[in-house]
User: Fold this.
Amino acid sequence: MRRNLIPVLALLLGTLFLFLGNGLHGLLLPVRGSAEGYSNEILGLLGTSWATGFVLGCFYAPKLVMRIGHVRAFSGFISIIAIIALITGMVVDEYAWVALRALTGFCTAGTSMIIESWLNERATNESRGAIFSFYISITLIGVVGGQMLVGLGDPATTILFMACGIFYCLAMLPTTFSTAASPQPLKSVSLDLKSLYRNSPVSFVGILLIGIANGAYGTLGAVFGSRAGLSPTMIAAMLSITIFAGAIAQFPAGKASDMTDRRYVLAALSAVAAIAAVLLVLIQPQDAVIMIILVAIYGAAANALYPIAVAHANDFASSENFVKVSGGLLLLFGIGTIIGPTLGGPVMTQFGPYTLFAVTAIAHIALATYAIFRSRLRAAIPIDSRETFSSAPMATHPMSTPESLALDPRAQPLGEQSESPDEELSHDRR
Assistant:
């Protein structure tokens, strides 16, 4: 394991700082915006704007990278993100924040694609799974760690915004000082909606609905916490618990999906998420412990849905179409995250903060209903004829880019020759 990770440790360290900044800045803006009295619609647009920029970045950032090179593009993207983090601390204006979040999303897609392609270049077939899993862990730790830092400072001052800028600058250093050869050009991204739907209607509709629910909660969860009277520390804890609960739940949920029709598991998890959300709407708990428990149950079910939906789509896809199908679903999820906050903001304004969970409940009920409906129309792939959920790292986590799919062992053609560890290290000396 250590031998596999040594060649990419510097890059993974930069990744950790990047996602620490992303986690901190992504939570800091809605918390500060709520304190400034920004409307739910504006705070929802912060998430919509970021997701729009991220999706556009997946399409257009590779063209920029091909023109100026990986190192220059990476440094440029992170410089822009750092500048924006500092500007949002100095210029507290709702419309400026919305516009700048779109640019942040675009640059985040660019930096993530470069990191993922660089990791893929350094990985061998034998180390690919370990590197991919470690990369996903680093991103989750970074986001959660960044969120928890909100409680260590005063969101009303510029200190935490300055901390974001520092994290982003630190993220730039490993690749800036590296003498390693640049990776191959980034892959072009395509989105064939008709083919995606024909391959798996449940995954197509499900990923869109999951994106709507996760986008609404991911963007407006901090706003909900603020409107419900939670402190910044409790808000950070609430959002972090949903991430951890979802990460833990993926393995037992995935194992269950290996033993039966994955659509039944999607329906069951969606039902659990919907029930937890409805209870939050009806009870509106004032006790923080009860709220955290319900949110943890919600997060465990809601955040385990995405990889199972991707696995279900890949059950029906040929191996050579793995990247195309999974990458298309990833971008479809991004489209859902654009829709979710746009719907959630006005609903919260009209009916109160707890109705954010009514939006997510409707999406999950729709997914459960559609999954059961489709299970009556199309037979499941026999269990012994499909790949198990745990046989390879799950394609990616939702806010990675399609470039990350190359790190999955299933994306590699059989018989591809891998580099030896000595050859890998020689890259870093060039």
Q: What stands out?
A: DSSP finds 16 helices and no strands in the chain. The first helix runs from residue 2 to 5.
